[in-house]
Write a structure and sequence with these properties.
The structure is a single chain. By secondary structure, this protein is an alpha/beta fold. The protein has a single domain, classed as Alpha/Beta hydrolase fold, catalytic domain (Rossmann fold). The chain is built from 10 helices and 8 strands. Helix 9 links the parallel strand 7 and strand 8. Helix 4 crosses helix 10 and helix 5 packs across helix 6. The longest helix is centred in the middle third of the chain and has 21 residues. The two termini are 29 Å apart.
Length: 320
Amino acid sequence: MTDNPLRPAPFRKDAIAEDTAKLNDALVGLMTGLPEWWNVGAERTREARRLGRGPFPAPVKSPRARTIGIPGRDGNEIPLRIIAPDQPRGVYLHIHGGGWVLGSADSQDPMLERIADNTGLAVVSVEYRLAPEDPYPAGPDDCEFAAAWLVAHAKVEFGSDVLTIGGESAGGHLAAVTVLRMRDRYGYTGFRGANLVYGAFDLGMTPSQRAFGDRRLVLRTIDMQQFYNAFLPTVLDRRVADISPLYANLEGLCPALFSVGTQDALLDDTLFMHARWIAAGNEAELAIYPGGAHGFTLFPNRLADEAGARSEAFLRAVMG
């Protein structure tokens, strides 16, 4: 028998710090009254985000970043945005979030710079195709091909073929799918670690997704439903392993860090996936952030600093 690593204290309301509660109230205020992306269109919403019109500040672009293109499965070119230290000790394959509909590889350069500087890893962020223009399996295919390209070319490109992987939200989902595809389609089990931050792992909807309701705290139940409908317009069974990795055979995978806030509609996804990862015989850590909303790492706040430091420490540890 082993001790239960979960404790009730972080999930209680009195565990939420005052600054976190204030941030959540501010997020609700920022989100209230915003047009729904499915009404105004995905491209208009993407453009608004690029200009900082909405809850997220306008992206700050790194002068250190460069972009290369690699071939994709469908004859498309997949841009890879790279921020690397002078002598990388390995590679971090990063996959951005945005519900498979929004977001971009160049929308979080400061975070990727910090990861590169604090871990010594070359950060490679995938500009995968987005729904609804390119629904499943386009995005997962691009992430898979980026991983396969790194397995073949990272040594020449970066001086190291030691790979880690991670992402936030939809990026956490795609990172888990990529780890599984690389194992099942290429026999590759060489990732040193997976940094999975408030990912969606059951696209058939976990209880926390269904019960979250309509509080405008970044991600509501209807938001998940609309993202899934855009990403999976013709898929009837959303709980097959390649779509919902919670239902996959998880044996033989790398160590993982699962991070989530307690005020996130995807709370159950992280709790359930962490448990299944361990039950399959893999190493895994669980980081719970009291009061953290979905996307809390994208805003300047104490919890984001803590989560960033924990993720970077995990990546350093798995690199040895």
